[in-house]
Task: structure prediction
Amino acid sequence: MRHVLATILAASALTSLAQSAPAVAAADDTPAARCEALNHLGLEAVADSPGQIVATAYVAGRQATPDEQEMFAYRGVTQGNPTPPLGSFPDHCRVEGYVTPNVKFMMMLPPPPQWNNRFMLAACEGWCGKVNPDTLVPGLHHGYASITNDGGHYSREPFDGIWAHRNIEARINFAHRANHVTAQVGKAIAAAYYGSRPKFSYIAGFSKGGNAGLFTAQKYPEDFDGVFSMAPVVNYNPKNAAHFPWIAKAVYPDGKTPLLYSDKVPLIHGAVTKACDAIDGLRDGIIGDPRKCDFDPGVLLCKAGQSEARNECLNAAQVEAVRKIYAKPTTADGTVYFDYRVDPGSEQEWPIAILPERGNPIQPFVLTGAATGLKYMAIRDNPGPGYDWMGFDYPARKAEIDEMSEILDPDSVDLTAFKARGGKIIIVHGWADAYISAAMTVDWFEKMQAFMGGRTQTDTFAQLYVVPGISHEGGGPAPHIFDALTPLVDWVENGKAPERLLLSDPADAAPLRTRPAFPYPAYAKYRGKGDPNAAESFHRAE
Result:
């Protein structure tokens, strides 16, 4: 392995990214031998804090389970990088390690002939806490040297906040630092394995992973050339501390017993669709812009002869609960203290997100997120175990929330350095997102545009696509599979800004619909004639 190790050490010295390591004997310069040699790559001086490779393995022909195959496709959707349900993991060198104090990472590097000379960080979502190998497969499948991390802590997915107890450093790592140091070590590993540094670097993710993209553009502009961010949570801490508790209390007034279950979703979604679907000029089961939808769930109040038990209607308490879900959080005197609501048209994502499922012990994410967030994360000196989150007074404690928001919220509008270094960013947010209203992203984007000198100035490096009918995790009633990574790469590497994205249904759907999406504030509008399932029947409008 002398040649392999020499290549690794030369690349390390050339880039000043890694420390030298003692030579070891080896037989050849195969991908597997190169992978083994990475065990001797020092990571103590390549990132802002020391790191270490713990294990490497060359993986060839590993079969994927049915669940893993499903996750490959899912990850491709949420990373804007469509990926088929592959029957096996692409061949790769797997590298596992850590960066101090406690950021665990995993990297998968395609064999040198398959490498596209690019680096990809696939960001973790939810409240992280685990390294998921399937997260890496979309990038790996398309030739990227791909890395991910656990957000700097070990925890139960998706909303376990106990790790954050009185630990500000862990929260900083979770918010943004973990991705920064992971990018540093990932590039060093790629340089050592291939003998040259990646020519271009990209980051992709959704939700909290979408925040990762915004944070890198705001705080670490030199880390990535291209950013794909899906459904980010710009007002992250207020969302957890104000809106999740508001929704949870609407469904669980006593914090324990739900007023309604997810079996009411078809009833509610049907009524919303009937009321608001045609506002955009096409009745297709997709609400074009929920900001124009003025729906009152009072129309579902049980009438004589209807049965709430058979899900034919809502009782008075349920009507009030659904009204609160659709409303912005307010104080007793009607003062709004959080500017965003759950948007009409998002109901198909309510099961487990907002409403419990009968017979399923898993609590809705808004309930677990509200409880654990207020106990352990939302304020600096968090109360911890035993705290009754139901009594948290957000308006009275907003100053404490704002203090923590300085760490957790990717809300800066100053992207000057990112633009100056030639960075490009594509953001996608769906109007059928039950977790995070796309209106939050729209508001931030408009503020960013104003700060950066207006639309003409920002069009050169940033695009937002606000898409009807797409949910938080990329499903929903609309076509929701799209390739954002290819146009992002073309923009970064060839200077060609995307004119649109093309969305489609899964390949086995019937009918197989396609639809365009245009950079905000433009949107796709039905021409008034032609096949509504075909992209060519829509034009760009503003």
Summary: The chain is about 35% helix and 15% strand. The two ends are 61 Å apart (CA to CA).
